[in-house]
């Protein structure tokens, strides 16, 4: 049954919140940029943002929410322009905090830099950045509020890989500790949370920009983007 059909009267109040990961970022130095300012979408990233807007065309979207970081706002811009809706900035959907910001983070770099080994003492927290449980807590609140603001309709929230993945793990009862290379959350992907009368009933995933991917996503040791 389609989303449109199940939202008709008699099936309860149906609300969907779409969590979008931003598009590709211009990052020629290959740094882990985290929350650092002035990291903008690449040309390819801007194309991805347009494809996200295309994917959302015709949906019953009434609420737009965005991370304060430039790459997230630039991903939201084409959709906001088409819909003519304001965009609320929500600090709760910002990228995860990370003590390795501004560095290249590869196995080779880590092995050659003994002073940062202490940061990797506990992958379950993780010890190098914002605890997974804290990310889950803030994303729960952000999703709740986005759903409340769009009750009976749809909302779009542009965020970042790790917060989106933590929200999905929480919703689906997955373990929070994971291999970052195995997150199903590619650039400009959409993870959709659908609620009926405030109760989560389904989680969906799609990749509107899949045709633009040049190949496998490069693996990162920690923290997505």
Key terms for this structure?
225 residues; alpha/beta; disordered N terminus; 30% helix; disordered C terminus; six-stranded mixed sheet; Rossmann fold; globular
Can you tell me about this structure?
The chain has helices at 3-6, 43-56, 70-83, 107-111, 132-149, 161-172; strands at residues 14-21, 61-66, 87-89, 154-159, 190-196, 199-206. With 225 residues, the chain is α/β, with parallel strands linked by helices. It has a six-stranded mixed β-sheet with strand order 3-2-4-1-5-6. α3 (70-83) links the parallel β2 and β3. 36% of the residues are buried.
Q: State the CATH superfamily name.
A: Phosphoglycerate mutase-like
Into which percent range does the helicity of residues fall? Answer: 25-40%
The N- to C-terminal Cα distance equals 34 Å
% residues in beta strands: 15-25%
How many structural units, i.e. domains? 1
CATH architectural type: 3-Layer(aba) Sandwich
Poorly predicted segments: 1-10, 217-224
Helix/strand order, N-terminal first: HEHEHEHHEHEE
Mean model confidence by pLDDT = 91
Instruction: Please state the CA-atom Rg, rounded to the nearest Å.
Output: 18 Å
Task: Identify the strand order in the major beta sheet.
Answer: 3-2-4-1-5-6
Q: CATH class, anyone?
A: Alpha Beta
Number of helices: 6
Give the overall shape.
globular
Total count of strands: 6
């Amino acid at each position: 049954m389609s989303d449109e059909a199940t939202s008709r009267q008699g099936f309860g109040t149906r609300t969907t919140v779409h969590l979008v990961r931003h598009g590709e970022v211009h990052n020629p130095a290959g740094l882990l940029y985290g929350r650092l300012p002035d990291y903008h979408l690449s040309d390819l990233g801007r194309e991805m943002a347009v494809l996200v807007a295309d994917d959302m065309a015709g949906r019953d979207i009434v609420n737009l929410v965005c991370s304060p970081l430039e790459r997230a706002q630039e991903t939201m811009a084409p959709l906001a322009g088409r819909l003519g809706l304001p965009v609320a900035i929500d600090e709760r959907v910002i990228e995860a905090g990370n003590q390795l910001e501004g560095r290249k983070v590869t196995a080779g770099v880590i092995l050659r830099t003994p002073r940062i080994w202490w940061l990797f003492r506990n992958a379950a927290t993780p010890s190098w950045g914002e605890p997974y449980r804290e990310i889950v807590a803030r994303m729960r609140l952000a999703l709740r509020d986005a759903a409340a603001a769009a009750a009976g309709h749809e909302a779009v929230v542009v965020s970042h890989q790790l917060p989106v993945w933590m929200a999905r793990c929480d919703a689906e009862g997955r373990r929070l500790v994971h291999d970052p290379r195995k997150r199903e959350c590619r650039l400009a992907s959409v993870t959709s949370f659908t609620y009926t009368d405030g109760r989560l009933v389904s989680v969906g995933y799609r990749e509107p920009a899949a045709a633009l991917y040049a190949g496998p996503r490069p693996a990162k040791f920690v923290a997505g983007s």
